[in-house]
Amino acid sequence: MSHKPESANDQGQKKRKRKKRTKQTITCAVTHIRLIEANPGKLAALDQLLEVYLPLCQQYVALFCTQETLPDKYADPVFATVLSDRLHRVAMQQAAGIAKSWRTNRQAAYDAYLEDLADYAEAKTQATASGMPLDPKRIEPTWKEWNLPELRVPAIQANANVVAVEQSEDSTFDYWLRISTLDKGNPLHIPVKLAPYHKKALQGRTLNTSTTLHKRKGVWWLTLSFDLDVPVETESSAQKVGVDVGIANFITTSTGKKYGSFHGKLARRHTRDREKRRRKARLRACLKKKGVEKRPSTSSASGQRLGRHVRQEINRAVNQMIADHPNARILYEDLSVASMRFKARSMNAYLYASNLAHIPEQIAWATAKRGMAAHTVKAAYSSQEYHRCHYPDRANRPDQQTFKCILCGHRDHADHNAALNLARRFGDTELAACKNKGEVKTRLLRRHEEWKKQYGLAVVQPAVQLGLWDSYGKCYGQFCLLHPPASSPVPSQQETNFGIIHTPCMTYTHRQSARVPTS
To answer: What is the pTM of this model?
Structure first.
């Protein structure tokens, strides 16, 4: 059996680091290559291989997902099989990749659940201390254990040890696939015929050694890939553009532009498709009660078309955003859609249909393809923090599209405010070092206190001590926000022993007797 290869030497690692600074490598896939030129006997042998390979891969998926240690694709084999050692190793590598992705998403969802549970406990403690009842809409979060991954699509993710792509020289075919099978020493040779657009995509390219074979509706398909080095053209002094991702607006930038939306036509199509699937589910339940074995599927062709339409709209929105900011540095949130949950099932279905997870992937792909610099930043509290005073609070978001700081009263569109926060978090090593949302919130509150000290802001208890309650201001939280009417002049230093500070977002009282700065 092959084991984990030795680590690369220091010189090779330094070479890759230098290359990473000036170039970024993207992997391009060439899909939809039908294997229809092979005779039925060869395809039957491939089906026999899949019948043994897929259950073995499923066994290792279950093992890697449930064991305490991280999945190791170079570990010693555990299960007995009639497959060759090389095919056995390929099955382990494929299962390790699936399990690693599943464990990462599950851990992110569990961490989000713990953070929500801590927020709920804090809100409950505050309500008890204040003598006010807790908001009845807030329900204690519950954790539902995830199901293990199930391999539903027959697929083989192979390397050159078991599936080799050989150039055809003396036939009308373009390539030959040499596939190891259950019959040791007698590999299959399956011909590959490329379409014109396949030839155009592969012209002048060097194929990767990894290939993917999958079977759909009784037909075998092949996926090839090649690497492409794209030089990074974004200047270090380029404009930083934050990108917020959402359902109402697929993309909102820190420059104030919005692109795409799931509302409108897409939402109406989703509602019709969901009603159709619910009717099918009721029909299946009725037929099952009557003992009917063959029942209609809950999936629908209209739902698949809707998914493709949503991805097309997302791709169009990303392309428009990049076209409007060709020389910018794109900063988008490190979004974890797997951990997002709503109380209502209809909202969860709405979230699933919007395909938000596709947006960060498309941004990364589209920017890399054009040689643009794109980075992910911490997304925690980006929608609840005001980018000037850094105060994060759930109450800052009274509804989906409105942001209003409860301390300073600043108002903005919630998505635009979040995009501004994301743009400012680039290069923020302190937030990047935070391991969870609790640490992020602690850091933001500390910055808020530093911001208050910088402007010499004082807490006034009660606010009536200012003597300005009726004439010039109103009490808002712990600070006195002064909003003098247009007909009333701002009191000077002689009229009151409190100076007035005008910041870009608010007016606070200042305890020092100094000259009055202007906005």
So the answer is: 0.74
